[in-house]
Amino acid sequence: NKVTFMMRNLFGSVVLLHLMGVCLSQFPRPCANSEGLRTKECCPIWEGDGSPCGALSGRGFCTEVLVSEEPNGPQYPHTGVDDRERWPLAFFNRTCRCAGNYGGFNCGECRFGYWGANCAQYRESVRRNIMTMSTVEQQKFISYLNLAKNSINPDYVISTATRAEMGENGENPKFSDINTYDLFVWIHYYVSRDTFLGGPGNVWRDIDFAHESAAFLPWHRVFLLRWENEIRKITGDFNFTIPYWDWRNSQSCEVCTDALMGGRNSLNPNLISPASVFSSWKVICSQPEEYNNREALCNATGEGPLLRNPGNHDRNRVPRLPTTADVDFAVGLPEYETGNMDRFANMSFRNVLEGFASPETGQAVPGQSTMHNSLHVFMNGSMSSVQGSANDPIFLLHHAFIDSIFERWLRTHQPPRSIYPRANAPIGHNDGYYMVPFLPLYRNGDYFLSDKALGYEYAYLLDPGQRFVQEFLTPYLQQAQEIWQWLLGAAILGALIALIVAALIVVARRRWKRNQRRKRALSNGERQPLLQSSSEEGSSSYQTTL
């Protein structure tokens, strides 16, 4: 079975690579070298036609990066001290621009929601509640997580130094291999890390390119889409989607069991149960103060076990988990952003959902964590630190549900893109700002739109008929699909047995009839002289021998 699984995944990966090209993530290997840094160009060759960006096939072309010049808010007063400013110009000023439905750093794949060699096929996937998935599906998800944790990513590397430390002409490139799961942990760390200002511990903390302002929801939407695509690539499972955990009205961590995301260790409540595969995981990027003191980036080395102690948190900060009423209140707020568009914004849907404002009044509540933030604090471990929170796989389930609430708000209010802040949001959050640290490039405002335009949907937001199919019928169909070889074999074996039994019955019946005829023949033979008494001796008799 293991060999079959491995061969199927290998074949699926080859097919997926053919259809989609390379995957999406941080620094593409073809650009992570002295030449790429010196020329500041990242326009890799697409193997399909041997040209940069697939230009010969009309997939895209290499062009200058034009960044937004709109002013940022007052929260970050510095200029020219952080590689993430005006992303990605500190590293590259020329990248691939893809045409039509093509995507990827070399235009060798498709944009979200599209498939096929020419990216002309639209396909919609459905993200489902992990609690309603079958045991087989849950186990598959966990095995995919573990595979990602133990597979070095073949296409991307991470930066282990600032651009200045790599030399003016890139003569000292500092990039490192990383496994696929930790690649996304590092991305989440890098987008939220503090700015180094020079000298040990001298940092600017009031900066985050993916939290505390407008880009919080679009950025994490792209993060999940890219993570989803990466898992599809390494497993060959085209149907994979990230499940969500609907935590409304929860009193405990329902997914914290050995069968799912790992139960509590009976000897140390801060650790994961040894019965869970996650107990052996090592976390990365979990020591921000150490990095600040050393003026160094996280280099993705292991830093100890995954920590989690749900419920044993500061209850003054998080008195309870969010309720259905809290979510409904947030969805009902008509304004996406207000005021300075930061964590102090009042009556802002984004700020209430992110968890810096009350889901009962809409007013900012410094010192408390609600909604999204409350789940992070509640987990009381690796997930409770922003920069290292993605180490805990519950992060994915949690953010998938947050994304679904964002989707509910979009469907309820159907906002035009013009309400997304074009200027004066904190750095990294304006409409035209490219999301840090993604390559290829994505603008924040381009993902302020419904999930259907991106090729996915949430099961609980489907109409009743579709929801029944996805949550009740689909699990059984997928289980049948997973064991169809055995079902086919059993059917064939059953048919053979039925044929053999039928043949035996026919043979037995014929023998029985033959015996009956013989008995009658013997009986008839005793009377034959009387029947053959005839006045014409020697004439043929009508009684033939049976």
TrEMBL record:
Residues 518-546 are annotated as: Disordered. The keyword RNA-binding does not apply. This is Tyrosinase. The chain crosses the membrane at residues 483-508. It is found in: Melanosome membrane. Residues 211-228, 392-403 form the Tyrosinase copper-binding domain. Its EC number is 1.14.18.1. Gene3D superfamilies: Di-copper center containing domain from catechol oxidase (1.10.1280.10). Keywords: Copper, Glycoprotein, Melanin biosynthesis, Membrane, Metal-binding, Monooxygenase, Oxidoreductase, Signal, Transmembrane, Transmembrane helix. Residues 533-546 have a biased composition (Low complexity). InterPro entries: Di-copper_centre_dom_sf (IPR008922), LE_dom (IPR002049), Tyrosinase/Hemocyanin (IPR050316), Tyrosinase_Cu-bd (IPR002227). Residues 1-25 form the signal peptide. It is a single-pass type I membrane protein.
